[in-house]
């Protein structure tokens, strides 16, 4: 697998010419970024982010044939969390998918995964649950993972009543922080021999290891945090450190750093990763993919050189963004085929 040769990874940070043309505008456009270091500003940022997201071109997607509802999931502590459910308007008995949104464990909402969810419904007759897990600093580590596990168990138990058939497939996925949650849960499900088992994992620019927990043997290949420290728009090193300060993870724990999972990665479902060259988390994804491949996990990687974390949200008109959408479609076909 070409992308798993670490000698090529630094070259992925060379800025994409098309992105370079729009990046100056994006940096000066009104937005709710970067992540605020003052927790008191978070509520306003969450509202602003949601309003911007509703207006974003990426969200103006064709939802023909897709019904969307809201459910409440009771967690282990008795607290209820909401989730968006996307399913075919014409009742079918298709596969189940559970998705987790990004946002640094401190912002975000289920609608951020709407493009992937709608695609799964329209192309695969899936029932998709996008989970609104609790976020920091109000709910620090490991609350997001606990909510994620409770939601995954709830989805499996309620699949039939939601119109899904787990025998046709059970996909777990997420983006950024949500990708971290999904990667952790994939190992938990394997270790507990969850039945029915997960059949596919979809990870979009996931965080897979705490920067302070990178083993000595891997440090030579873990360069993107510093190389992309000043990456534009959605995520740079400062923003990532802010997220860490609010979420307060135990970086050495496998429940935050699934790359370090103590029982290894053997036996995980087939896994797809999408990786961005200007992303501080680029090497999280590539190291994780390499370790999965070494463990015999059927793994595919798509890399988008020269674009930052979540670039498709702000610049969906780019050729790289169009390629990402095409690759995502192919990824779901591969994962669910």
Description:
This protein is an alpha/beta fold. The protein has a single domain (2-336), classed as 3-Layer(aba) Sandwich (Rossmann fold), CATH 3.40.50. Helix content is 36%, strand content 15%. The chain is built from eleven helices and eight strands. The chain has helices at 17-28, 42-55, 114-124, 143-157, 159-162, 177-191, 224-227, 237-247, 282-294, 311-314, 319-336; strands at residues 66-74, 80-88, 96-100, 127-131, 170-175, 200-204, 270-276, 299-304. Strands 1-2-4-3-5-6-7-8 form an eight-stranded mixed sheet, with helices on both faces. Helix 4 crosses helix 6. The longest helix is centred in the C-terminal third of the chain and has 18 residues, at 319-336. The chain is globular. The chain starts with 16 loop residues before the first helix and ends with a helix. The model has no long low-confidence stretch (mean pLDDT 94). GO terms for molecular function: sterol ester esterase activity; triacylglycerol lipase activity. It comes from Cercospora beticola. Residues 98-311 form the Alpha/beta hydrolase fold-3 domain.
Give the helices and strands, then pairings.
Elements (H helix, E strand, L loop, with lengths): L16 H12 L13 H14 L10 E9 L5 E9 L7 E5 L13 H11 L2 E5 L11 H15 L1 H4 L7 E6 L1 H15 L8 E5 L19 H4 L9 H11 L22 E7 L5 H13 L4 E6 L6 H4 L4 H18 L1
Parallel strand pairs: 3-4, 3-5, 5-6, 6-7, 7-8
Antiparallel strand pairs: 1-2, 2-4
Pfam families: Abhydrolase_3
Protein name: AB hydrolase superfamily protein
Keywords: Hydrolase
